[in-house]
Write a structure and sequence with these properties.
Number of helices: 21
Structural class: alpha+beta
Length: 687
């Protein structure tokens, strides 16, 4: 770990511009990185917080083909949506760039060329999968097949999303082209490879020895597994029609592999920012007094901890990351987030349903952050955290302080009298919080840090509850001046300490307290004897956190249920056709229209109903296994389709003479196969 760095370069994983941003992205990468950057700025640190749209690679090409537009149209559309989402949620990048920008193309090309000129690559001709019908080589994501490790039949050519194994397209069993559905052939092609095996000793010394005590166990463990499993050369070029041209002779029609070009996007974004700000970009990437931290999700660990560092090491002039605090995954209502299945909470849609509640979501995602294991976001938990924590603890404290100050002193901070032991103790405890919260943030334990911020609000609530100024004001008004002064110091501290986590709340609270953004910094909370001075005029109370009612939450749950049903219907597969039947076989079946006259549950049988059915030729008893789907009352009078010449069968002592025809809907619920047309009489033959 770098102690007392002169500056910080913070990167957040470049989002693919093939879709909007959802809560999984926010929880995994962007809120944690923003908390860290905001915290450092509050301490007066020199920070470069970099990100940008990842606009190359197969995902973009696939989206373009699916939507029938060009890759450029895809990246322009989603770059705009993503940028707006980051602005809406207060993600405070110093620069948000694009990998389609000229500065990035030039930076990535120069980086490749230097490694090429220095002899750092291996040039090899290998056999790759080729779609003859589409007349193109198939990049990893244009191939699906059976995973050789777990048997998943829908694995991609680069990864099995079921077991998490990293694959090569040629590893797949029964591969298919996603472009044409054809079985690809093997065809020779030339590519350049970074020989990762040559960096084995470097990675073992740098990570496995150097960072065994400060990197998160999930990150360290994954790196160790890869290194111990044996590193192999990794291709840095691809046969694609979208991306950055490989800048050497003999590489026509080839592009830089997106995982080579994308992390260089951090560097090009810094160059772009430094040029605008009149700074020297190299200090943020090449000076040993700079602390580099990558914020990513766990699916990017290999690229940021093995491949990109090997690239930087090969180039020779760059610093290496001090830490890569990758988070695990966030699930949604018990199921894995999926953009393709629309199983997500999209940020732009969230704000339509919950306007001005960005901090409520930032809070819920941080309080339940998947820092050490996969966690689950549920709408009920979101509601509880907003109502029972933000509103009931934080909001309640601020409201009482501001309302009482306006009621007793017309909004003017009172001059305190002599402090009691409880006053001194409370103010001393308040001064200790910045160091406690800092310790958690600097160890990337943001969930823990947020809990301590809420403890500041709890400190304020306890102080007011114990002191009861609303009772004391009649008995000892001079004492109440001191009490309200102390409470206002806590409220002011909260406006600063919550800023990394709840930036919109911080701004609103500072506005209520009539404080400027630059008036206080992080360290002032523990060092200054007075945070908000006597005779300072504050504003009127405003609701910081409105309650979220059950109806709003039910609307979100219903939306997800509708998505689940739509997915089932879209992905439903018909049962395979049974063996061929002759016309004579079919004519043996006597299927008629009938009406259920009576229905009752079979005693001691959860699944069976005993029905009396008018078949048009008689009234007969039929036992049907539908009791878990229908009550007797709701099916009396129901028109049904009946197989009447089925051989009778005794079920629990009741003879059943026929069968009601049923099917299942997308949710697995039984549905009657029934005649809806008017004028169809009981006993009518179905043929």
């Amino acid at each position: 770990m770098l102690e007392n760095p002169k500056r910080y370069t913070i990167t957040a994983a470049l989002p693919y511009t093939n879709g909007p941003i959802h809560i999984g992205h926010l929880a995994g990468v962007y809120v944690p990185s923003d908390i860290y950057a905001r915290y450092l700025r509050l301490q007066g640190k020199d920070v470069a917080f970099m990100c940008g749209s990842d606009e190359h690679g197969v995902a973009i090409s696939m989206k373009a083909k699916k939507e029938g537009i060009t890759p450029q149209e895809v990246i322009d559309k989603y770059d705009g949506i993503i940028r707006q989402s980051f602005l809406d949620f207060g993600i405070s990048f110093d620069n948000y760039s694009r990998t389609s920008a000229k500065i990035h193309h030039d930076t990535a090309s120069d980086f490749f060329r230097k490694l090429y000129d220095d002899g750092k690559f291996i040039e090899e001709t290998t056999e790759q999968l080729y779609d003859a019908k589409a007349d193109q080589f198939l990049a990893d994501r244009f191939v699906t097949g059976t995973c050789p490790k777990c048997g998943n039949e829908e694995a991609y050519g680069d990864q099995c999303e079921k077991c998490g194994s990293s694959l090569n397209a040629t590893d797949l069993i029964n591969p298919k082209s996603t472009i044409t559905g054809e079985t690809p052939i093997l065809k020779e092609t030339k590519h350049w490879f970074l020989p990762l095996n040559e960096y084995d000793a470097f990675l073992r010394e740098w990570i496995l020895e150097g960072h065994k005590n400060d990197w998160k166990p999930n990150v360290y463990g994954q790196v160790k597994s890869w290194v111990d499993g044996g590193l192999e050369p990794r291709a840095v070029t691809r046969d694609l029609d979208w991306g950055i041209d490989v800048p050497v002779e003999g590489a026509e029609g080839k592009k830089l592999y997106v995982w080579f070009d994308a992390p260089i996007g951090y560097i090009s974004a810094t160059k772009e920012w430094a040029a605008k700000e009149g700074k020297d970009w190299e200090l943020y990437w090449k000076d040993q007094d700079t602390k580099l931290v990558h914020f990513i999700g766990k699916d990017n660990i290999v690229f940021h901890c093995i491949i990109f560092p090997a690239m930087l090491k090969a180039e020779g002039s760059y610093i290496l990351p001090d830490n890569v605090p990758a988070n695990e995954f966030l699930n949604l209502e018990g199921s894995k987030l999926s953009t393709s299945k629309n199983w997500a909470v999209w940020l732009h849609e969230y704000l339509q349903d919950f306007p001005d509640k960005q901090d409520a979501l930032r809070y819920a995602l941080t309080a339940n952050a998947p820092e050490t294991k996969d966690n689950d976001f549920t709408w009920k938990d979101f509601q509880a955290r907003n109502n029972n924590e933000l509103a009931a603890i934080y909001g309640n404290f601020i409201n009482r302080v501001v309302v009482l100050t306006n009621k007793y002193y017309n909004g003017v901070v009172p001059t305190p009298n002599e402090f009691t032991e409880i006053d001194e103790q409370t103010l001393t405890e308040l001064k200790a919080y910045p160091a406690v919260i800092s310790s958690s943030i600097e160890r990337y334990r943001f969930r823990e840090a947020l809990a301590e911020v809420m403890n500041v609000a709890r400190l304020g609530n306890k102080y007011l509850a114990d002191e009861e100024p609303w009772k004391m004001v009649k008995e000892s008004p001079e004492r109440v001046k001191t009490q309200m002064y102390v409470a206002l110091q806590i409220a002011t501290a909260l406006s600063v300490l919550c800023e990394p986590f709840l930036p919109f709340t911080s701004t609103k609270l500072k506005s209520i307290l009539k404080l400027t953004d630059s008036e206080l910094n992080w360290n002032d909370i523990s060092k200054k004897t007075e945070l908000i001075p006597s005779n300072h005029q504050i504003g009127q109370a405003e609701i910081l956190f409105a309650q979220i009612d059950d109806a709003e939450i039910q609307k979100q749950i219903d939306k997800l249920e509708a998505t689940k049903t739509a997915n089932k219907m879209e992905n439903a597969k018909a049962e395979p056709q049974k063996e061929t039947a002759t016309f004579d076989d079919f004519t043996k079946l006597d299927i008629r229209v009938g009406t259920i006259l009576e229905a009752e549950k079979m005693p001691k049988a959860n699944k069976l109903l005993v029905l009396k059915v008018d078949t048009g030729i008689d009234v007969r008893t039929i036992v049907s296994g539908i009791a878990e789907h229908f009550s007797p009352e709701e099916i009396i009078g129901k028109r049904v389709t009946v197989l009447v010449n089925l051989a009778p069968r005794a079920l629990r002592g009741v003879e059943s003479a026929g069968m009601i025809l049923m099917t299942n809907n997308a949710e697995g619920k039984l549905v009657f196969v029934n005649p809806d047309a008017e004028g169809v009489l009981n006993g009518t033959l179905i043929s």
